[in-house]
Write a structure and sequence with these properties.
This protein has 296 residues and is α/β, with parallel strands linked by helices. The protein has 10 helices and 17 strands. Helices cover 29% and strands 32% of the residues. The strands form 4 sheets. Strands 2, 3, 4, 5, 6 and 12 form a 6-stranded mixed sheet that branches. A 5-stranded mixed sheet has the order 9-8-10-7-11. A 4-stranded antiparallel sheet has the order 15-16-14-17, with helices on both faces. The longest helix has 12 residues.
Length: 296
């Protein structure tokens, strides 16, 4: 356990260092969507093909599965290299008492698919998650198709399969096309051909692996000049490499924001703990979201 004076002793001591994340034959991992979702692929890449999966309706339901002890871990998308951060999931991190225990980056090729025998000229409507549609704007602008948002890319593929209508297409993964028996009309429709999504692995239990090298924190700031500059100064002063910063409005407070920051470090490092102590003194409600291994 991490030991340190003041607030950081209280906050960081809640995290237990382990050699490996506890995983057994009975481990259940929750993800949003249906089989074939990119989140399911991230889950498989991180935990292996043989682990029990709990498919839930949306991102919030992943958090609730952890909260209600229906799942041991959950997987959520947090950032895409083309469409940016998944802002709603930062809001969920602020609302639920969970810890980030890992991350998984997967290559995301958004494929256009339809029922067997369909040609591109027959399509009039396309279904996908808003992020999937955003990642394929250049291709979609050339088609003039009506775009319909769905909760999940794989659910879009499932709908196209079930509707059995040659005027409908889905944008989803190649895995989804195989599962739902759809033909691929365009295997890589995304604008950025180096498209990738970063997923975070969450747990109700606050574990961190001994070799974890990235820390996530969240905090509020007073609405005054230089407050964020001061916080970033502590990161610079201690020579810590910040890899991400995101801000989200604080509900009910006009022009006040909650900030999410990731930087390279480990909770066993006294320099990291000193920086966290200084940040806590000049911020509001500092939370250590987790210490986890960065997926390169």
């Amino acid at each position: 356990m991490v030991e340190q004076q003041g607030y950081i002793k209280h906050a960081a001591a809640g995290f237990q260092m382990v050699e490996q994340l506890p995983v057994s034959a009975d481990t259940v991992i929750a993800y949003s969507g249906v089989p074939g979702a990119f989140a399911e692929q991230a889950l498989v890449d991180f935990f292996g093909e043989d682990k029990e999966r709990l498919a839930v309706s949306d991102f919030k339901a992943v958090m609730e599965a952890l909260e209600n002890h229906e799942a041991d871990y959950g997987v959520l998308p947090i950032e895409n290299s083309s469409a940016g951060n998944v802002e709603s999931n930062y809001d969920l991190l602020g609302r639920y008492d969970v810890a980030i225990v890992g991350e998984q980056i997967i290559e995301v090729n958004q494929a256009v698919m339809a029922i067997p025998g369909t040609s591109l000229s027959q399509i009039t409507t396309v279904y996908s998650h808003p992020q999937g549609l955003m990642q394929c704007t250049e291709f979609l602008e050339s088609t003039g198709w009506r775009q319909v948002s769905m909760v999940n890319t794989a659910l879009s593929a499932k709908k196209v399969h079930e509707d059995n209508d040659p005027s409908k297409a889905a944008i989803a993964s190649l895995r989804a096309a195989k599962i739902y028996g759809l033909d691929i009309l365009n295997p890589v429709a995304n604008n950025n051909k180096n498209n990738a999504t970063r997923f975070i692995v969450l747990s109700k239990d606050k574990f961190y692996q001994k070799d974890a090298n990235k820390i996530g924190i969240a905090f509020g700031l007073p609405h005054e000049s230089g407050s964020l500059y001061r916080i970033l100064g502590y990161i610079v002063q201690h020579n810590l490499n910040m890899t991400m910063i995101e801000s989200r409005p604080i509900p009910g407070k006009q022009w006040e924001y909650y900030f999410y920051i990731e930087f390279i470090g480990n909770l066993q490092n006294p320099v990291v703990l000193k920086a966290l102590e200084e940040i806590s003194e000049h911020s509001i409600d500092l939370r250590i979201l987790g210490n986890y291994y960065m997926d390169n």
